[in-house]
Q: What sequence folds into this?
């Protein structure tokens, strides 16, 4: 059984869908390739952080891991952006 209230789940779903629309709109409307890549990878990183911290075990682990996972996600996002832009 899920322990989250229905309103909370709806809010998280709306936020995740909003980040998805942001990615699609940036791919369709932005003229700058660099900005488009940064927006898409940033939105993907934020979506993964939300899902992992709210619905997976990351939200219930000891203190240092709660700090290290967002740091790792940020580093991976920066490496993806840099690898895509400077290949």
A:
């Amino acid at each position: 059984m899920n322990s989250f209230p229905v309103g909370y789940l709806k809010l998280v779903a709306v936020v995740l869908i909003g980040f998805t629309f942001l990615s699609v709109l940036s791919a369709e409307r932005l003229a700058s390739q660099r900005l488009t890549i940064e927006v898409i990878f940033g939105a993907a990183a934020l979506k993964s952080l939300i899902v992992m911290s709210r619905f997976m075990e990351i939200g219930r682990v000891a203190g240092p891991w709660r700090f290290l996972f967002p740091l790792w996600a940020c580093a991976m996002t920066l490496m993806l952006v840099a690898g895509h832009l400077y290949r």
Notes: The longest helix spans residues 6-29. Residues 6-85 form one domain. The chain is about 80% helix and 0% strand.
